[in-house]
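Before relying on records like the one below, remember that each one covers exactly one chain. Contacts with other chains, cofactors or solvent are not represented anywhere in the record.
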Amino acid sequence: MFPSNSVGLVQTQTFTFAQDEPFALESGATLSPVTLAYEAYGRLNADRSNAILVCHALSGGAHAAGYLTPDDAQPGWWDDCIGPGKAFDTDRYFVLCSNVLGSCYGSSGPGSVDLATGQRYGLHFPVVTIGDMVRAQVRLLDHLGIDRLLAVAGGSMGGMQVLEWAAHHSQRVRAAIPIATTARHSPMLIAFSEVGRQAIYADPAWNQGDYYSNGRRPDAGLSVARMVGHITYLSEQSMHEKFGRRLQGRERYGYEFQTEFEIESYLKHNGDKFTRRFDANSYLYVTKALDYFDPAGQHGGSLAAAFEHAADTAFLVISFTSDWLYPSYHSKELVRALTAAGCDVTYLDIESSWGHDAFLVEVETMTRLLGSFLERVRGEV
């Protein structure tokens, strides 16, 4: 039924905490209770030393590998890298992935019901940070009885979570693998985030975040936000190779304001599809968390100081040459800071034409590199 190297049928589980004592957030607000959705693949060994936490990007969720039903057309978002014999080899490792706070795939977020009111939170949900997301993951590990991760890995926003783990919870991480990520958003990146948020705000159906009960969702605004974001995940070369200036379903220009180019059709399709699986308010919350992330800002602007307690953590930092969302120089800046902090760092800048999405596409390269690094860390343990 499933490929031989698939983890097969999987089940999303939930963990709820902070029922009695509210979970304190970096903003000063609190949340109670807190639910995290998560999935687990492979088997935890006797001494619980083979656990790997995989962290997802902006629009991802806990469903990272396998199939939720026998009829699923598509597996989890990083299925190419998680399973028997793959980069995260489930014959050797116990692999976890949890949906972050603020998202909409089973974890507490703006679309969740506030038990105090019986209504969905909307904008009454407190603003969360990458730090809050990771501290919730720490609570999940405590619940599962895992004292220390063999590794934590993730790309894009997942890479930010990896850096947060290393900066503030290094005693619980043997190895950190931040991929195609950054230690802080530049003004340009914050600007892209804000354009997406403004598109949602401008949709009349958004209604200040209160749209869950009226049957109208701000799909038009969310679709535009996704289209803008999706452009940044590609590269000029990949867009040229995939679409060029080809027309969609016609031989000549129509001289009209309709979808004419293939790239227009592609973006519109992806924007519309995104609205069927993601929540507009969650998009606002998660992009704000991205913009707030700045470990150096908590240490007087010194990125090296942010990792001064991570000297016992081994790092594999990966970037891609065509990634213009988080260009290679972001990773090189991180590597310099980690080196200055005395960390064990391996850095790879991979030649790829796939842009930011390369960490999801360059499967053979990722399998070889991640597999080799994890084998080394496992041997040292």
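The first strand starts at residue 13 and ends at 17.
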